[in-house]
Design brief:
Layout (H helix, E strand, L loop, with lengths): L1 E7 L8 E7 L8 H11 L3 E7 L8 E6 L4 E2 L3 H14 L6 E5 L2 E7 L5 E6 L4 E2 L6 H5 L5 E4 L6 E5 L3 H5 L5 H4 L6 E7 L9 E7 L4 E4 L6 H12 L3 E6 L5 E8 L2 E6 L1 E8 L3
C-alpha cells in the first residue's frame, strides 16, 4: 500500500502542516487499532485514511483522521492533503465528497493548483476566561469563545500579533481547559503583508503540543474575524515555526478553506 507525506496549506516543501495519506485498497477500514498504529508510526499531527465508496451515494470516499494518540472528528489539513493525493494520482477528478465524522465534506480543485474545502462553521459561544488559563498560555485573553463540538477548542484573542508569535505556553497546564486545545489569535499588525489575522494552535489533549497549520481552527477563526473586520473573505497566517496560509470565506453555516499542498515523500507500507 502506498503511503504519502503531504505538506498542506503551503506550496513549498517542508512548510505548512505535514499529513500522512493512505488510499486504502479495500472498501472498508481496517480495525481501529491498525489505523492508530500506522498513525503513531507516521507521527505527524494527523494521518488520513480513505477508501472509495460505491457510486450513486452521497459521498465518493470515506475518510478518517488519526493523530498519534487518537481519532479526531474534524481535520482540515489532512483533508486537503487527501484531496491533493486523489487529484495528483488521478484516483479522482473534479470535486470530491468525503464521508466523515463531521458529515459530508467537499474538496474542490482549481486550475492554479489550490483546493477549497467546504466545512461546517464553528458555533462560537462566549465564555468566561477560566482561572489559570492566562498563566498557562502566557498571555492575557481579551476575549474567549468555545468553538463547539466538532473541534472542542477555546478561541482566545490576545493583544497583538507580537504576543501570538511570542507565546511559550505550558502545554500540560493548557490541557485542563478544553477538549482539544487552545487557538490563540490576534489581528495582523500589517495586512499589506498578505494576511488579515494570525493564530497559533496548541492541542496537548490529542498529542499535539503545537499544530503547524490547522484548517479546522479556521472554521472558528473565519466567523470571529469576519465579524470584526467586516468582510466574509479573509486570509489567516498560522504563525507556527513551519507556518502556512489559509484563505477563508464565511458562508453562513459553512466556511470555505482554500490552500495549496505538495507531496514530499512517497513510499510503501510494508506491514
Amino acid at each position: 500500500m502506498r503511503i504519502r507525506i503531504v505538506d498542506a496549506f503551503t506550496d513549498r516543501p517542508f512548510t505548512g502542516n505535514p499529513a500522512g495519506v493512505l488510499l486504502l485498497d479495500h472498501d472498508t477500514f481496517p480495525e481501529d487499532s491498525r489505523l492508530q498504529s500506522v498513525a503513531l508510526e507516521v507521527n505527524h499531527a494527523e494521518t488520513a485514511f480513505a477508501h472509495r465508496l460505491p457510486e450513486g451515494g452521497d459521498a465518493d470516499w470515506a475518510l478518517r483522521w488519526f493523530t498519534p494518540v487518537a481519532e479526531v472528528a474534524m481535520c482540515g489539513h489532512a483533508t486537503l492533503a487527501t484531496a491533493h493525493v486523489l487529484r495528483t494520482t488521478g484516483a479522482h477528478t473534479g470535486p470530491v465528497r468525503f464521508a466523515t465524522l463531521s458529515g459530508v465534506l467537499v474538496a474542490t480543485p482549481h486550475e492554479d493548483g489550490s483546493l477549497t474545502l467546504d466545512f461546517p462553521t464553528a458555533p462560537l459561544t462566549p465564555v468566561e476566561v477560566p482561572d489559570g488559563v492566562a498563566e498557562a498560555l502566557g498571555a492575557e485573553p481579551l476575549t474567549t469563545f468555545d468553538t463547539g463540538p466538532n473541534t472542542g477548542d477555546l478561541l482566545i484573542e490576545v493583544a497583538d500579533e507580537k504576543t501570538v508569535r511570542g507565546l511559550t505556553p505550558d502545554h500540560s497546564a493548557l490541557a485542563r481547559y478544553s477538549e482539544r486545545g487552545i487557538i490563540a489569535t490576534a489581528r495582523a499588525e500589517d495586512p499589506s503583508q498578505g494576511y488579515d489575522f494570525v493564530s497559533r494552535c496548541f492541542f496537548p489533549n490529542i498529542g499535539i503540543d503545537e499544530d503547524p497549520v490547522t484548517g479546522s481552527a479556521h472554521t472558528a477563526l473565519a466567523p470571529y474575524w469576519s465579524e470584526r473586520l467586516g468582510r466574509p473573505g479573509l486570509t489567516g497566517l498560522q504563525a507556527s515555526p513551519r507556518s502556512g496560509l489559509v484563505r477563508t470565506e464565511l458562508r453562513g453555516d459553512r466556511t470555505l478553506l482554500t490552500g495549496h499542498a505538495v507531496t514530499v515523500i512517497e513510499g510503501e507500507l510494508l506491514t
